[in-house]
Write a structure and sequence with these properties.
4 strands, single chain, mainly alpha, binds heme C, 169 residues, two-stranded antiparallel sheet, 9 helices
Amino acid sequence: MARRRAKFLVGLLIAAAVAAGAAARADGIDPHRLYEKRCARCHVPHGGRFVRDNLERRGGEIIGRASGDTVLELLEEGHGRLKPAEVPAMMAHLAAILDSGAVFQRHCVICHGRAVDLARRELIVRDGELYGRYSRRPVAIFLATHGRQETAETGILVRMLKRQLVTAE
Ligand code: HEC
Ligand code: HEC
């Protein structure tokens, strides 16, 4: 029994590591930097805030709330002056923020309020991993039995909470 549990935990750690690795894109574009370089001059400093305040999904598309414009079209038409190869990287980044926000909204917000507050009050990043600030528990493992999210969503949540700390000012 203990052995099965250990195996399960190792599997989880590998899944979390793979998920973290996926954040570094194969095309070598860092979308956080890209947002800071190309968008933050005119919009809020952090992409996460920008997405929460301004974007939503309608059908399969991500659209601007105020304009109703499709973000993909806006960027392809030259808004923000992205290079063609940077447009899909930016779209994937905005979508990831939007979707992780939705998972947190669905499973966690009722007890924890805003993700950014949970992260900054209760969590720390040490050697690239996310831990409880006081409990010292690895969050990826803690979430396996906490919060009732789907297993596949755990990596999304861990990455999102980590991002809240990494981008903290
Ligand atoms: C030179 C200033 C400037 C830059 C740089 C810029 N924007 Fe904008 N953006 C604006 C203005 C002005 C508007 C329209 C007014 C508004 O909606 O706030 C706008 C609107 C938008 C909208 C529509 C919002 C809505 O609610 O309909 C999106 C999406 C958007 N920008 C994304 C981006 C992204 C992503 C980048 C970086 C790649 C970027 N912008 C770079 C000035 C800029
Ligand atoms: C029913 C209420 C409830 C829900 C729903 C809930 N939590 Fe919690 N959470 C708590 C409480 C209470 C604690 C503090 C007690 C503890 O550490 O076990 C906590 C603690 C935590 C911690 C701190 C762990 C640590 O080691 O310090 C994290 C991270 C966390 N929750 C994340 C989440 C996430 C992500 C979700 C959604 C998938 C979620 N929680 C859903 C009530 C909840």
